[in-house]
Design brief:
The chain starts with 12 loop residues before the first helix and ends with a strand. It has six helices and four strands. Helix 1 crosses helix 2 and helix 1 packs across helix 3.
Length: 199
């Protein structure tokens, strides 16, 4: 009689690397504990990985955050907002670079609303567009104040965790492309009833 295993889901490279890190931490902990004392329950170490992923995720995020912060410093601050067309009917209002069609910019903790000494553009509107979208699509209850403070950063971190991104609290191109957006129709001057990630 043949025993058939159920089909396993496909895993991304990042998920496999995270699982490998969790297993390595678990094996190291078991080996360290085995040298100190014998465990009466063989099933106890197996329960450890359930609580380990957040710690492993934080380690991965911490290492990657330094690189992400360097990359973020090279990007300009979003100092405008524009409607990015998705198709003939719908577009997404999102933060953008002043005087450009590019949305390859960032917003980060401390943008109040300007960053640095330059006072060009309208970063307050860019931050408000982001805050409104986070409130609608992710159920956050941010004050739409145009200040990228600790609450906005915390919601962006939650979005990054949800979409399996580096958790650094910076709204940038990767977060923009992964997150859900509410669409707007210029033709009917109406908002979509739900959110999607059409980018």
């Amino acid at each position: 009689m043949a025993f058939k295993l159920p089909a396993l889901p496909k895993l991304s490279g990042r998920t496999i690397a995270l699982l490998a890190a969790v297993v390595a931490v678990g094996v190291g902990a078991v080996a360290a504990n085995a040298s100190k004392q014998a465990s009466p329950e063989a099933g106890t170490p197996a329960a450890a990985p359930a609580s380990e992923p957040p710690a492993a995720d934080q380690e991965v995020s911490h290492d990657a955050t330094a690189a992400e912060l360097k990359a973020a410093a090279a990007l300009p601050q979003c100092r405008s907002a524009r409607l990015v067309p998705v198709n003939r009917t719908w577009g997404i209002p999102m933060p953008s670079i002043l005087g450009s069609t590019s949305t390859t910019c960032n917003l980060m903790y401390g943008d109040d609303p300007y960053r640095g000494s330059s006072r060009t553009g309208d970063p307050e509107t860019a931050i408000q567009v982001l805050q409104r979208n986070l409130n609608f699509c992710y159920g956050s209850k941010l004050a739409v104040d145009g200040i990228y403070g600790s609450n906005t950063r915390a919601v962006i971190k939650m979005v990054q965790r949800k979409h399996h991104l580096v958790v650094d609290g910076i709204y940038g191109p990767k977060t923009r492309s992964a997150m859900n957006w509410r669409l707007y129709s210029m033709a009917t001057r109406s908002w979509s009833r739900s959110c999607s990630s059409p980018l």
